[in-house]
Amino acid sequence: MLPAQTASSGAPFFIDTHSHFDAAEFDADRDAEYARAVAAGVGIQVVPAVSRENLPAVAATCARYPGCQPAWGLHPMYIAVHRPDDLDALRSQIAIQRPVAIGEIGLDLFVPGLDYATQEFFYVEQLKIARDHELPVLLHCRRANDQLLKHLRKIRVPGGIAHAFNGSPQQADEFLKLGFKLGFGGAFTWPRANNLRRLAVDLPLSAIVLETDSPDIPPVWIGRGRNAPGELPRIAATLAELRGETVETIARATSANARAVLAGIA
To answer: I want to staple 180 with a disulfide (CB 3.0 to 4.6 A). Which of 108, 175, 201, 225 is the partner?
Structure first.
């Protein structure tokens, strides 16, 4: 196990609420990227699973890196590999190690060819698991906010995070009413992301958590390159600039928001 963060007193402390740090893109330099994130003040990363097959990789990552904490879930983009008995494996994994959330789960109406009925089945069943275990959820919500909300009103879970939120102000309000926070990462750093940038400014700071979605959704300064958890402070600085706040205020508020909504985060 590598050492945990030992940031100096008063230094900004960041929580990356969505980092696929187990991904193969980090196999060559995962230790170095973890050290870079820690040095930048990223003390916690939430690492969500995406399928039954990668549960061991997430578990191993969280065992090696003390700042990494797991979420267990079946991602809607991987429905081609999901099977109904994977839900039993998910329950078993929860019994082995209680996660900070069930995720990454949800619906995707952006990628063509993903059968909606199958997505909906796994989403609903995982909401039931979250409800039964009193766990929040990490929601994948590309072009599916209204459909996600419909089921959340029927199957009440203890809140969670709408990951990579890109909906309307009205949809944001509905998630907030249900106890959710909204995840903001590299996407809003792009100058042409007008909707996201307006939301980042207009939403109450109490609604926002920070995330990278590493190795995906790179910020503007990376372009098409690999994203990494160590970019989170600069993402926070962009949010601070847009809102007219200090980075310290953003770090403190978003970390408190993450702790409030995630289950037993250290």
So the answer is: 175
DSSP summary character for residue 226:
-
Domains plus CATH for the chain? 14-261 (3.20.20.140)
Q: Is the peptide bond before 104 cis (omega within 30 degrees of 0)?
A: yes
Q: Per-residue pLDDT tens for 239-249?
A: 999 999 999 99
Query: Percent helix, strand, coil in the chain (nearest 5)?
Result: 45, 15, 35
Within 8 A by CB and 6+ apart from 40, the residues are 14, 230, 232, 233
DSSP category for residue 23: S
Predicted TM-score (pTM) of the model is 0.96
CA-based nearest residue to 233, from 179, 185, 170: 185
Please name which of 64, 70, 67, 21 lies closest in space to residue 40, comparing C-alpha atoms: 67
Can you tell me whether residue 121 is helix, strand or coil? Answer: helix
